[in-house]
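Milestone M4 deliverable, item 7.
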Amino acid sequence: MGDFGSEGEEDAFIEGMPCTASHAKLTILDDPVMVTKTRYDSFPGTDLDGILRTLGVTTVVVVGYVTSFCCDTTARGADGRGYRTIFVADADGGPDLARADGSPYPSGKVLEDVTSEQLLDPPVRA
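Output delivered:
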C-alpha cells in the first residue's frame, strides 16, 4: 500500500508501517503478486487489471479495512471492469460501516456479499 496521510497522523497508512502489513494469520504464497496502490481504488495507477486479465481471473474477492473507502472503491472499480465482485462480509472492517438508514455497508446490486465460511466452502451447484 502506498502512503495515505502523513507520518505522525493517527489514521495514516504509510508503506512499511505495522498498520499496512498483511494480517499475521494470512497465508502468503511463495512468490506472491503484490500491487502497491496509492489511491482508494486499487486499479488506477497500478498493473492490477492487466495482471488479473493475464492470469485469467474473472472474480475479485474484496477484504480489508476502511470498507467505505478503499474496499468499496476497489470493488466498484472491479465491477466497472467486468469482474464478478464479491465482498466478504466478515473480513471487511472500518470505523463507519453503517449507512444512515442502518443498512450494512456495502450493499447494493453491484456487490455480492458472502461470509468467509461461504467463500471457503461454497455450495455445490448441479
